[in-house]
Amino acid sequence: MILASNDLRLAFRCWAAIGAAACIVSVPLAAAQAPGREEGHAVASEQLRVSGAADTEPFGRIDCIAATPDGGVALFDGKGMDGPTLLLLDENGKLRRRLGRKGAGPGEYSSLQLSDCISVTADGTIVLLDRGLSRIVRWDRNGKLLPAVSVPVRPSGLPPYLVPLRDGSFYVHSVIRPPTPGGVFDGGDYGYIHLSAAGSILDTLRPSAMALRKRGHRIGDPNVQWFPRIDGSVLEADQAELGYRLRDLKGAWHPVSHPRPAIPFSTAELAEEAAIQEWTRLLTRGAVPAGELAETKPAFERIFSDAGMRVWLLRRVPAEAGIPRPEGGPPSIGATPRPARHLFEPPVWVRFSAKGKYEGEVRFPLESASGSAFVATGNTVWSASLSKEGEPVVIKWLIEMH
């Protein structure tokens, strides 16, 4: 089902008034930035939202999405009505094609996929990394099945798990060396295996010295995220600051930084997280101990590079009250009732150009914080989220940066 956009303009503080209908959001940057920051504004216009492949076929669970060059989106519904399904939607959110089905034959895939299991190349080739069957399944832009690529390693670690390169080869995130005695893995055990289009191992991409630096173990302590990009360059970002650095094809590093003041966790956030941590400890009978929360938030949560080589960072911001979401488990454990999360951070994405120029930031409705998938092609953005009723939806946005 698709809901068309209303002609409605809202300011930053009216997110709670946004219902299931689509909207246009005008976002002045100056209202959200610290004193002394440059002025400017970004506009996020919600164009449409899709709740299923058809009116009678709602989405079951959107595991991953990828933007297509024609302005549409590919998505993997892990709990489709007819089983796991890879769907292609056009720029208007209408179903264009179904690809494959659950199984182990040609063009088929296993049911459980990773959080970023699909990718779409510049020529429209749809690529699915099937962890369960250890292979990469591919279709051309017209839906014709292409030869699968065997993956000789098990994808693991942190996303992105699959990076298709412009030359037709692939990077797959995996373990690159045995763990230390006792089976404990650290950051140096993970890297990217470079595979040819035929599936042979070409080389291994290992983490840099910065990525291997020891970090604190508190919740919220900054970490380093890194991954190769479609042109073979490497992006690396330390969550301690709003920025990143790029390693070009000659091995030279180029830093990009846009400092912002550190944001502390509020008293309410600390109390809510402490209750959730204690619940997790009780639920696992101590197997997962309660963690300590850092005093301040990292500068950003996630980072990705789009098809145009722009870099997007999900900036950490003060949390706001949203629709409560109970934690998993029974209603209570002994005298401890199951806690619910009430505080959420509205998604605020910062964008840099392909050359590292700061282009501004845009804030999305608090409702869209319930989903994690976010992909962009040009100024079109698709996000996977949950509606106020808790149902999976895909939303198309138009981003205007000034």
Describe this structure in words.
The protein has 1 helix and 34 strands. The protein is mainly beta and 402 residues long. The longest helix has 17 residues. The protein starts with a strand and ends with a strand. The N terminus is likely disordered.
The number of distinct β-strands equals: 34
Number of helices: 1
Strand content: 35-45%
What are the segments in which pLDDT stays under 50 over at least 5 consecutive residues?
Answer: 1-40
Structural class: mainly beta
Q: How much helix is in the residues?
A: under 10%
Can you summarize the main beta sheet? Answer: 6 strands, mixed
**Distance between the ends:** 32 Å
Overall mean pLDDT: 83
Radius of gyration, in Å, reads 21 Å
Shape: globular
List keywords for this structure.
34 strands; disordered N terminus; 43% strand; 402 residues; 4-stranded antiparallel beta sheet; mainly beta; 6-stranded mixed beta sheet
